[in-house]
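User: Okay, second chain of the day. Same drill as before: sequence in, C-alpha cells out.
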Amino acid sequence: MKLRSVGWMAVVAAMAGGTRAAGTGDDRCDHGGGAWVGASVDPATGAVTRRYSTPRTADHLHMRLDLFIADMNTPRMSGLQTLTLRPIGGPLGETALDARGLTIVSVTCVGRATQFEHDGRRLTIRFDPPLEAGVAAEVITAYEWTGPERGPSLGLVWTPESPAWPGRAAQLHTQGQPETNSFWFPCHDSPNERLATEVVVTVPAGFQASSNGRLAERSNRIRAVDDETGGVRELVGYETFHWAQEREHAPYLVSLVVGKFDVVDVGTSGVADGLAMPVYVPPGRGGDVAGTYGRTAAMVAFMEETLDEPYPWARYAQLVVHGFMAGGMENTSATTMYDTALFAPEELDDHDLDGLISHELAHQWFGNLITCDSWEHIWLNEGLATHMTALWLEERHGRGAYDAEILGNFDGLVEKDKAEAPAAQGMVSAVYDHPWEVFRRPANPYGKGASLMHMLRRRLGDAVFLAGLRAYVDARQGMTAETIDLRRAFEEASGESLEQFFAQWAYRPGVPRLVVAPAWDALAETLTVDVEQTQPIDGDNPAFEFDLPIEIRTSGGGSPLRAVVEVRGRSTRATVRLDGEPTMVAVDPDLTVLAGMDVRQPAAWWLAQLASGPTPASRVLAARGLRGDASTRTLERLRRLAIDPAEPTPLRVEAVRTLAARGSEVDIRSLVTTARDAWEVRLAVTEALAPLMEREEHKGRGPMGAALGRMLAERAARDESTKVRGAAVRGLGKLGAIDHAGLVIAALATPSQHDALRQAGLAAAADMALAGALPAVDSLTRPGAESRTRAAAVAAYGKLGASVGEDVYGRLVELLDDRELRVVRAAGEALVELKDGRAAEEFARREESARGEEFAVMYRGWGKTLREKP
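Assistant: Same drill. C-alpha cells below.
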C-alpha cells in the first residue's frame, strides 16, 4: 500500500485495534541484538507489550462470498459465506472469526450441530461433534452488512448518489489493510492466513463489479421486488459477476468495487502476452487512461525479468474510486487507486503516476505472492515494493532517477529516524498497539526498507543481489515470510554473513550521524580521513559498523582511486597515500551507507565534485556541501547550474535549494526570470522564496515584500504548471500579500488536477486571515468537493474562523458525523486547535458510543491532547 497523505496516517496510527492476541507466535530474535527491539514489558503491569501472530486453529482453504446488493443508493448488503477449513493439530470443537459490525443471521456446518456467539467483534463457532483433524469441512454463514447511520465506516466505503454530485453514480469500494476486511465478511483477519477466494456479487443492472482474479461468469437476471403486503411491486434487472481467485492470498487483500466506469485495457501485444490490464476510471475519462497508465505493461515485463518470476495472477486491474483514503492498495490482481489518480493530457508535463503505479504493481509479488507473516515484518511488503519503484525509474530514466529516489529515502530517514533503544523500536519490531503503527514509525518500512535493499545491492553487486532476490521469491512464493527468510536468501547467494547488517539496519532504531573530515598532508603526501559518529552512543546504542567508500582524484592525473574507510567505533581515522594533491574527494558517491553526513572539506573539492562527480548522487551531494561557502565563485557556479537546461533536473533543483538555504535574495530573484524551462526548477525557485517570505520585514510591507508579492502573483496567475501555481498561491498566503487576495479567492473557485489550486487557496486564505473568504471556505467543507479538499477546507475553516472571531464550533462538531473519515479527522484536529473546553466533553461522549475501538481511540486521543494543550 502506498499512502498519499500524512493526514490519513495520523488518524490510523492513533487507532489501537483491539486487544493483543494471546497466541503462540514465534518470538525469535534472529538479529542478535535483543536490546534493539525496544521495550517489550509494560513497567507498570509487567505485561508483555509485543504482538504475536493470531493463532491458526484451522487452515482456511477456500472462501466463497455470495453477495446481493438490492439498491446502490441504500447501503445494505446481504452475504452468504461458504468457508472451507481444515483443523490443524487435532479435533476442532471451536473456532473464532473476526466479524466486526456485521449482523450474523445463521451459521451451519454440514454433518455437525453448530452454535455461535457474536459479540460484535468476534464470531465464535462451536461444533458437535468436533471437526476431525486434517479433514476439510464447510462452514456456511449468512450475514448482513448495513452502513452506519452517521459517520464514516471502515472496511467497506459506500458512496450513494447525492445532489451535491449531480450525475455521479453510486459506488462502493473496500479497504482491508491492515485488518479491516472483517468489517464486511467474517475471516481470520491477519496476514498469516492464505486461501483461495470467490466473490459472486449481484448488483443492479448498469453497474460493474470487480474483485480478485478472473471473471468466471457474468450473467443477467430479473428479480421480483415485493411490496409491503407481500405482492410483487416491480421487476428489477440485476447483473451477477463471479470472480474467482484460485491461487491463495491473504484475507486483507480481498477486494470488492462496484460502480459505473469506463474500462480501458492498457496491455500491449508481445509484452506480458495474454494478461488483461484493465483500468477502471470515471465515465467519460477513458481517453485519459493511456497517458497516465500506458506504461503498465512495460512495468510488468520489467519486473518479470528482474525477478525471474512471471506475473502471478490472472489479470492486473487498476481501479480509480471515490474517496479512497490512501494513494493505492495492492489488492490481489486489482489495485485500488485514489480518486484523482488520472491525468488529462495538459497535466502530463508536471504529473507522473509511475511511482505509485510501479509500487502497487510490485506488491503483486512482494505482499501478495509473498506476504509478511505478521505486521512486524511489513517492510518485506512495503520496502521491497518501494525499491522496485526505484529500479523501474532507473530503467525508464537512468541512473540519475534511481539515485534521486534513494537519496530521497535517505533524506527522510535522516530527518525522522532519530529514536534510540530501548525506548523506541526499529523497523522490525513486534512492539505496537495497532498494526497501523508499524507503517508510520520513524524507522519507516517504506523508505528504510528500500534503503536496506539498496545498501545490499551496493554491498553485493548487481549479479549477486539479483540472485539473492530471485532465490527469496522462489523459496517463499505462495507463502508467508519473515525478515530472516530474506536474510538467508542473500546469505546463500553471496556466501556472506549478514546478521550484523540486518541487526543494524532492520532491527535497530536510528541511523548514524557522521562528521567526515578529509585533509591533505602535502609533506607526507597522504590524505587523512577522520570519521566521527555523533549520535548518542551507549550500551543500548553502540556505534554503527560499516565500510565508507571514498573516490579520490589527484593532480597527478591518473585514474580515480577508490578507498574504503572501515568505520568500527565512535572515531575512525584512515590514511591513503596519493600520487599528488587531491582535486576531488567524493565521500560515499554510490550512497552505500544510510547516514546523516556532514562532510567538511575545501570548497574547491566540492566544486570539482559538483562539476564532474562520479555519480549523479555525488553531484547533488556536492551542491549541498557548498551551502557553507559564501564566495562569489560558488554563488555564480550554482546560479549557472540552476539555469542550464543541459544539466540533470534533480541537480538543478538542488542548486536552487542551496541558493535558497544561503538566503541570497538577489540570486533567487534573478532565477525567477531566468530558470523557466523545467517545471521542477520553476517549482523549486517558487518554493525557495519561502525563507524570504517568512521574514517579518517582508510580510505585506516594504519594497522587497512588494516585489516578492508581484513575483508570486505572476506565477500564480500565469505559470503553465499547476504545481507551480499552487506553490505561488501558498506563498502569497505566507507573505500576507493582501494586495493579491483576489488571486487567492480565485484559486478557491478554480478546478485543477488533485484540486491543488483550491487547496492552496484554502491554506493561503487561512494564513492571510481573509474574512471575506469564509463563505467560500465553508462551502468547500460540504459534500460536493473532493475529499482531500474538504479536509483542507475544514482545517482552514477552523483557523480562519478563530482569526476573524467567527464562531465555528458548531459547524466543526457537525462535521464529526461526516461520512468521510478524512473530514472527521480534520474536524477533530480543528476543534483541538480551537482550545474550546466544550470539545473535550464532546469527544468523551463520542468515545463512549463509538462503533469500534479504532474510533474510540481517535476521540480519546483528541480529548487527551486538548486537555494537555496550554
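Confidence is low (pLDDT under 50) at residues 5-36.

User: Thanks, on to the next one.
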